[in-house]
Design brief:
Length: 355
């Protein structure tokens, strides 16, 4: 009796196992497709070309190279006194490149607050200003003009106006961040444009429509060895035609303004003899520094800064006029001379009418 019951249980077990095997096999046919298809093989109708592995292998710009810096013994100062959008750690690769070449990089926050601006610039070869969101005072602009007139070099990196979103515990907020030194750069014939740039052509951007390509215009020390640079937050430079400023880099063809969708080859870098303006700051970031020829371009800018003439003395701003200088009797502002004793003029009487 016991043996017969055990045989029945075993038979039921075998039937259940066979049934499960059949169900699993049928499920494999429905889900997996044709039996025997090797893994990774293309099954027509189920593996469109855009999902093939070779189509997903996106080409990126190689991040290789070194930052070449010319000369030695130069001193470069970084402006930190105008609410600049940077941190010291972000500039460590630039500091390292200058150090390797025998130059030094110092920061404005290390300078004594009691030292006059013109005294700070004395003995400095170049001044690097990155995205100042506070303006330069008239006195500071006057000192910088004296500095560049004496042979000092200035490089200004700027960004177009942008809206930044911040998320906190109590919710989100938006902040408009704008370049605020057009009153300075305008004295050299160039200012920041009103809009950001973009390019949807894959051959003219670095895998992002806002990461545009720019290329040199002509030959020179700031373009030597550079074929293409990438700008992630690019704007454009507005160059006054009657100024000494010249365009040395321009955006790739097909580049447009983000707001008004105007297409042109927008200027992105302009310079005068001792002043350079770049309408982007992202190319000095660690993540962008070695894209395309960015590291070569950065090296050219650092060389420009480090090899400027370091004036021993930079004239300060014009002295404020005294109260005596402001006294004038006529509309031309010419003070009335004091009469000399003994030389007083006797008024001539008017002729009387004849009778």
């Amino acid at each position: 009796m016991g043996d017969a019951w055990g045989i029945k249980l075993l038979s039921v077990y075998i039937l259940v196992a066979v049934g499960l095997a059949v169900v699993i096999a049928l499920a494999g046919l429905v889900v997996g497709g044709t039996p025997g298809t090797p893994d990774g093989a293309s099954v027509e109708g189920q593996s469109p070309s855009q999902f093939q592995p070779d189509a997903l292998d996106i080409a990126v710009d190689p991040e290789t190279g070194e930052i070449p810096v010319d000369g030695s013994g130069g001193r470069v100062l970084v402006d930190t006194e105008h609410a600049n959008r940077l941190t010291r750690s972000e500039l460590e690769p630039l500091e390292e490149a200058l150090f390797r070449a025998g130059h030094t990089l110092s920061f404005g926050e290390d300078i004594s607050s009691t030292q006059a601006y013109n005294e700070t610039l004395a003995g400095t070869n170049g001044l690097l200003v990155i995205q100042p969101t506070d303006g330069f005072s008239p006195d500071e602009r006057s000192v910088l003009r004296n500095y560049t007139d004496a042979g000092g070099h200035v490089v200004v990196l700027a960004e177009p106006t942008q809206t930044r979103v911040s998320i906190g515990l109590l919710g989100g907020s938006t902040t408009v961040v704008s370049f605020d030194a057009n009153n300075l750069t305008g004295e050299y014939g160039v200012r920041m444009g009103a809009e950001s740039l973009f390019n949807i052509d894959d051959s003219a951007n670095d895998n992002n429509f806002k990461s545009i390509y720019a290329a040199p215009r002509g030959d020179g020390p700031l373009t030597d060895g550079v074929e293409t640079v990438t700008f992630d937050t690019a704007g454009y430079a507005v160059v006054r035609p009657d100024s000494d400023a010249e365009v040395i880099y321009a955006a790739a063809e097909g580049t447009q303004t983000l707001g008004s969708r105007r297409t042109a080859q927008y200027p992105t870098v302009a310079r005068t003899e001792n002043f350079v303006f770049v309408a982007d700051t992202s190319f000095v970031d660690r993540g962008e520094l070695y894209d395309a020829d960015n590291e070569v371009f950065v090296g050219r800018l650092l060389s420009f800064l480090a090899t400027g003439t370091a004036p021993e003395r930079v004239p300060g701003p014009p002295a404020e006029p005294s109260s005596a200088d402001n006294e004038a009797d006529d509309a031309t502002g010419t003070p009335t001379p004091e009469p000399t004793p003994g030389n007083e003029t006797t008024p001539t009487p008017s002729p009387m009418p004849s009778g």
